Prior knowledge:
It is built from 13 helices and 7 strands.
Amino acid sequence: MSKIITGVFGSRILQHKYYSIHEPLCKDRCFFFAARGSFCQDGDVIFCNDIDSLFKALGLQHNPQEWRLFIDSSKVSLKAVLLQNGNKHPSIPVGYAVCMKETYETLKHMLSSIEYSKHSWHICADLKVIAVLVGLQAGYTKFCCFLFQWDSRDRKKHYIKKVWPKRQFLIPSVKNEENDPLVASGKILLPLLHIKLGLMKNFVKAMDCGGSGFQYLRLKFPKVSKAKIKEGIFVGPQIRQLMKDPVFESKLTKKEASAWASFKELAKNFLGNHKEEN
C-alpha cells in the first residue's frame, strides 16, 4: 500500500509547490495519515474506498464532471488515476494492482472497489483496455469497434467506405460482444495518442515500399526492423522527429507529401495539447 500512498503524497507536494524539502514533512503529516485511511487492500489490489475523503484531505472539491479516470496497464501492473480536465491539479492515484493484467474480472473488481458507479467519471485508456471495459472479445475480432459495426476483415472497403452502421446496443454474444459492458459507451474518451499512432500506421502502409520516402525511414530508424516499418509501427517520439525533419518531406512523392501535410496539421491543431476552434 505504501507505493500508492507515496503517489498521493507526491501529488500533494506538486499541488502546493513547496519551496523546502522539509516543509511537506512537517505540514502534511496529518494529511498522510488521513490519506492512508482512505485506502484498502484486497489481495493484490490496492484502492481508494472513499474518494470524497481523499479529496477533502487534499483540500480539493470533488466534482466528477471535472475529472476523468485514466486506466493504464503494463505487463506487471494495472493502475487507475484521476486526471483533472484542465490539468490544473496533479494526478491522483486511486487504484493499483500488481501481477494483474487488464482482464474483464480485474477491471470489474477495480471499478467496483473505487465505487465507479457512484461517481461515473469519463474514462480514458488505451484501446485494449477500452475493448475490455465495453465487453468486446479479445484478439483479432471481426467487429472490434464499440462505436460502429466496422468490419476488420473487409479490407477492400477500409479506404473506400466512409460510413459504417452504428452499434445501437452492446449485447453479449452479438457481433463479438463477449461480456456485459462495465462502462457506458458515452463515458469512453478515445485516447488522442492512439488515434495519431493509427493514422501514422495507415500513412506508412500506404507508402511505396520501393520509394525514397520509405527507404529514408529505414535509414532514419536503423534499430527499427523492416517488418515494423512496413506495418507503420512507430511511437510518439519517433513521429515527432519525422514531423520536424524537412529531409523526410523532400523524399515523399507529391501525393504522399500532401497526405503528410494534412497529418501534421491534424496532429498539431487537434491531436496535441493545442486545439483549434475549427
